[in-house]
Fold this protein.
Amino acid sequence: MKLFVQKISALVACASFALPALAQHSAHPALPHSKHKTVVIAHRGNHVSAPENTLASTREAISCGADYVEVDLRTTKDGHLVALHDAKVDRTTNGMGKITDMTWPEVEELQVFNRNKKTHRIPEFKEILALCKGKINIYLDFKEADVAETWKQIKAAGMEHQIVVYLNREEQYSQWKQVAPEMPLMTSLPDEITNKEQLAAFLHQMHIQVVDNVANPELLKAAKEHGISVWLDVQSPTEGPASWNEALHKGVQGLQTDKPAEMVSYIVKSAQ
């Protein structure tokens, strides 16, 4: 994300900056429908009892009633789209090496580390899509993948209206706007954006629907005025009602958590 926001920061700082022309006339897609007033996002699935980015953690996110499951997307050497956070498989599996150096048959043989002793594996994106359809939205953290192939699989699954794409690099914006202009997009704000005028300039160039981790009260208010949602990452070993309440009092629209079941319960009770 660093490279992306640094380049955008330079554009915002200039008096006459410009992104590709297509950014100037992009549509303003609507976000997927959410069950809760405050959007609950299960970080890498509900991985308290199942390994992250697996079908099992996705099922757990669905079962607990989260609005979104966060899915990290990468590509194998032979072009298969898979759910994996790291560039390497070392941390989460019994294998070693970069996912981009491995074929799908090789990836299929890997076992994902787990606490419940059941055998899990790295899933293909199309499996995640099929599992989530009509049950939960996807917060797609777009790490390293082909936009056209990703959109093809999304359409084939009938999931066009259940996904928000998180952008990690500058070129991903224009790629998504070219291939799927109606796809809701999300990104982080550059650190240099500290007032409403700079935010307005940024949003004029980047037609996005969500920004994450904005804490500045002026920017939070300005984002709301522009119709932009703000989602905060609150996942941590110590997260709970106190930190959730603090986040909600900032006036944000969504929270990403490692404890989605508990947060859903908290959100429901808070709304009563």
User: Anything to note?
Assistant: The beta strands are 39-42, 68-75, 81-83, 137-142, 163-167, 185-188, 210-212, 229-233, 254-257. The two ends are 38 Å apart (CA to CA). The domain at 34-271 is CATH 3.20.20.190 (TIM Barrel).
